[in-house]
Amino acid sequence: MTAGTRDGKGKFTRTPASAARDAEAAALRAKGRTFEQIARELGFASRAKAYEAVRRAYADIPYEAVEEARQLDLERIDRLIEHCWAVMERDHLTVSQGKIVGKRIGWERDDDGTILRDADGAPIPVYEDLLDDGPGMTAVREIRGLLERRAKMTGYDAPSRFEHLTIDAIDAEIRKLKAEMGELPPGAPADHPG
User: Fold this and answer.
1) In this predicted model, which residue has the larger pLDDT, 189 or 115?
2) Distance CA 170, CA 85 (A)
3) CA 114 and chain centroid, separation
4) What is the C-alpha to C-alpha distance for residues 35 and 15, in angstroms, rounded to an integer?
5) Does the predicted model carry a pTM greater than 0.70?
6) Is the predicted pLDDT of residue 2 greater than 50, yes or no?
7) Which long-range contacts (CB under 8 A, 24 or more apart) does 169-176 make?
8) Which DSSP category does 145 fall into?
């Protein structure tokens, strides 16, 4: 099978059929097939030709569509961060065996400050609900992961480029500049008085 037909200058041009075949090769690659398997299955002359077909199919995806999908994913990440942030800021009660856990903080009292008692004469305890930090901490981890993903997608975490120079390289550059300015005879050390 050919990749297309020849134009007036003898070069191959892609036809709708060859573009569809390239797309099929890309679909097989997305399913985990090797280039060798794609070549055999679709009748490419070699695995290199199958690779080229997949690359052509990827190149056919309009940049606008890729950028639109990227923006959509960034918006989804932002909504997920918003939701997780709300979970993080909310108070969560501690629950154990289906019951809210609390701690006794005192006794129920009437307006005069007298401790109220139940029917058996025992003081009526007052409880305060215990808060659970677990859901908030889980939300923090989720937010961190979402922020890391967002940073990768936007290039925020792109590594900085540093140039490491040795003292010898710096001295050589100083000698070169001094020689160009006429302040140093060629081959003299950088610390030459000139």
Assistant:
1) 115
2) 50
3) 61
4) 22
5) no
6) no
7) none
8) H
